[in-house]
Amino acid sequence: MVHVERYHGGDQHAMSGYWGPPTAIANFCEEDYALVFWAAEFVNSFTNLAYVYYAFKTLDRGESLISTTAFPNLALFFVGVTSFAFHLTMKYDAQIMDDLSMFWVCAAIIYELYTIGRSTSVKVAFGSALTAILGYISARHYTLNQLWLHNWTFIILVTAIWPRVLFLIRNRLDGPERMVARRQFRVGGLCFLAGFLLWLVDGAYCGPLRSARETLGLPWAFLLEFHGWWHILTSIGAGNCIRVTKVLTGKTPAVSR
């Protein structure tokens, strides 16, 4: 039995869109198929291009998405692609791909941060354990048809990142590099928190937001699509975190940024 946790089911065009009736557990405040026939959530789809942009923008000179030093970039790229597919179709399988990509971009950053200076055997053991744990959670998340396991796993992964970054900035960097890294990480963290607040407002006050959008009309109504702002702001946060991670792992100097 599917445990439905949709915020806003029953939109008037939802059953007649190109991709068919939504099957995703989560649905957001943007009205399904209200703008175009071929995109369930137009704004929420195309704001994911911000993740793709920062995946490429945070590559260092000579790196590509398939470089062994760019796993966080590749993971962020997949966040953008899978989240685009999810919001475009509002299908459950696409939602799962989006959910899991969020796990793996955090895992890629965690691996980099917690294996700095470790031996190859320790890196292999840590990477294998992290992959096994997240693999099991991913499989359970797919079969349980719920949101709580995804939400709590994501919270735990993010919580594992920020104190480690602050610790490494304090212990591995000095002078201008420390100042630049702290500023980048602070900006990223504030963007992430602002995006999270807008994500909460989008779910809690959808009725007033939809009324305000109708009053404003297009294109100004787009400014009140707060889940889209979540995508943009968290892409900035993730991009800054990737930049700082590369500085801490010695892959690029902070002052060059």
Automatic annotation (TrEMBL):
The positions annotated for binding Zn(2+) are 87, 227, 231
Q: Which species does the entry assign this protein to? A: Exophiala mesophila
The answer to whether the entry has keyword Nucleotidyltransferase is no
Q: Does the keyword Zinc apply?
A: yes
Q: What is this protein called?
A: Alkaline ceramidase 3
Instruction: Look up the domain of life of the source.
Output: Eukaryota
Which GO BP terms sit in this record?
ceramide biosynthetic process; ceramide catabolic process
Q: Which family does it belong to?
A: Belongs to the alkaline ceramidase family.
Give the principal location in a single coarse category: membrane
Membrane-spanning intervals of the chain: 35-56, 68-88, 100-117, 148-167, 187-205
Pfam families the record matches: Ceramidase (PF05875)
* Positions with a binding annotation for Ca(2+): 30, 41
Tell me where it resides.
Membrane
User: GO cellular component annotations, sorted alphabetically?
Assistant: endoplasmic reticulum membrane
